Amino acid sequence: MDSSALSTSDDTADDRSTGYGGGTRKKVALDWMEWGRGWLHVVGEFFFQRISASHLENPLSLPHLDGITCIVTGSTSGIGLEITRQLAEAGAHVVMAVRRTKFAHELIHKWQSEKQGLGLPLNVEVMELDLLSLDSIVQFSKDWNARQAALHALINNAGIFALGEPQRFSKDGYEAHMQVNHLGPALLSMLLIPSLLQGSPSRIINVNSIMHFVGFVDADDMNITSGKRKYTSLAAYSSSKLAQIKFSSILQKRIPAEAGINVICVSPGIVHTNVARDLPKIINSAYHLIPYFIFDAQEGSRSIIFATTDPQVPDYCGMLKADEWPVCPYISHDCRPANASEEAHNLETSQAVWKKTLEMIGLPFDVLEKLIEGQNVDNRYGAKID
Ligand SMILES: NC(=O)c1ccc[n+]([C@@H]2O[C@H](COP(=O)([O-])OP(=O)(O)OC[C@H]3O[C@@H](n4cnc5c(N)ncnc54)[C@H](OP(=O)(O)O)[C@@H]3O)[C@@H](O)[C@H]2O)c1
């Protein structure tokens, strides 16, 4: 993680604490039973993911994806790198939206040389994106939208889990996990709606996590600074993933079926990547010693690639939309539709997270409706979205 873009909790926590209004007693955390059931899901995925995914090929075989354009965030490492390589090898035009642009160019060069003589050159390009900076997201969107090109899939893959690290905040003043894993992808998704409309039928794929089962989001305390809940990196990570499901649920509900954009959250499973780079050395070594249970990045990429390319996924999304299901489509590590956590089903808090997220990323509450109608949208970052 780029520490220059971050400040510690001591610098800015007081400015962001929003407190609890209302008067009625609000739920401020999962109760012990919910917490226990959540952990059962996590442990179950850990021990049984290989068995439940044993029907899947590795890698998945893909149809020809010529003419399909995908943006993949965080494609320099782990699951994102695998998704990018496989989509590109199937013929898609893939945009690597990354912080480390030089390294991304080196990766493309390596893939091209490995593929030499085996067919057409890969259609991969690199654009700079740092999710810890809302300005960077706006700049990325401006550059992309200026092309007036159709986008078929936005894969919000980049994420952080700074296990055991102290609480940190972005320059925008938001808790780092919440910004990189939820607020940044939410802003990017909204700013790219015009391009996704142009590419319709299109998909927003959010790489989520089974850890959302132990998450809890309080829309009045997105930064975990009010003191009602103790900050831990685990709480921050799991909350950010639950916030993403809640925001996606309202976004998916509000996008009219005719617009042809579906929003899907996907669990990759528990995967051996660089996500554990912040774990203490001893735990990291143990993590490396349990390869039987843990997926490698190629195995972990399957559910995301499936959600991005399978032709039946839009039908499934349409069915849930017609049924007024309270949660967005959620696809599990075994490429099967799954149920998100109980907490994800609470529509009232999902509405609250939707509103708070738009406020935090500087967009008006009717942004989606305006974009769908092709109107310009004013926003505090001055991005031209039309
Ligand atoms: N691994 C698992 O067990 C697991 C389980 C469930 C969900 N997930 C989710 O899967 C996704 C991919 O994670 P991974 O396991 O593949 O981890 P990873 O190997 O650490 O890859 C994370 C990617 O995100 C990028 N990234 C981090 N901060 C960023 C920022 N501020 N702006 C732009 N890009 C940024 C990283 O870029 P740099 O190379 O520049 O650092 C890297 O390319 C994440 O959303 C994670 O939460 C992973």
Overview of the structural elements:
This protein has 386 residues and is α/β, with parallel strands linked by helices. The protein has one domain: NAD(P)-binding Rossmann-like Domain (Rossmann fold). It contains 14 helices and 9 strands. The chain has helices spanning 9-16, 32-52, 78-89, 101-115, 134-145, 176-191, 193-198, 233-254, 281-288, 297-300, 302-309, 313-322, 347-360, 367-372; strands spanning 6-8, 69-73, 93-98, 123-128, 153-156, 168-170, 202-207, 261-266, 330-331. The strands form 2 sheets. A 7-stranded parallel β-sheet has the order 4-3-2-5-7-8-9, sandwiched between helices. It has a two-stranded antiparallel ribbon with strand order 1-6. Strand 2, helix 3 and strand 3 form a beta-alpha-beta unit. Helix 5 (134-145) packs parallel to helix 6, helix 6 (176-191) runs parallel beside helix 8 (233-254) and helix 8 (233-254) packs across helix 13 (347-360). The longest helix is centred in the middle third of the chain and has 22 residues, at 233-254. It is globular, with a radius of gyration of 20 Å. It starts with 5 loop residues before the first strand and ends in a 14-residue tail after the last helix. The model is unreliable at 1-23 (pLDDT under 50). The structure holds NADP nicotinamide-adenine-dinucleotide phosphate. The site of NADP nicotinamide-adenine-dinucleotide phosphate has 27 residues, from helix 3. Belongs to the short-chain dehydrogenases/reductases (SDR) family. InterPro entries: NAD(P)-bd_dom_sf, SDR_fam. Residues 1-10 have a biased composition (Low complexity). One of its GO terms (molecular function) is oxidoreductase activity. Residues 1-22 are annotated as: Disordered.
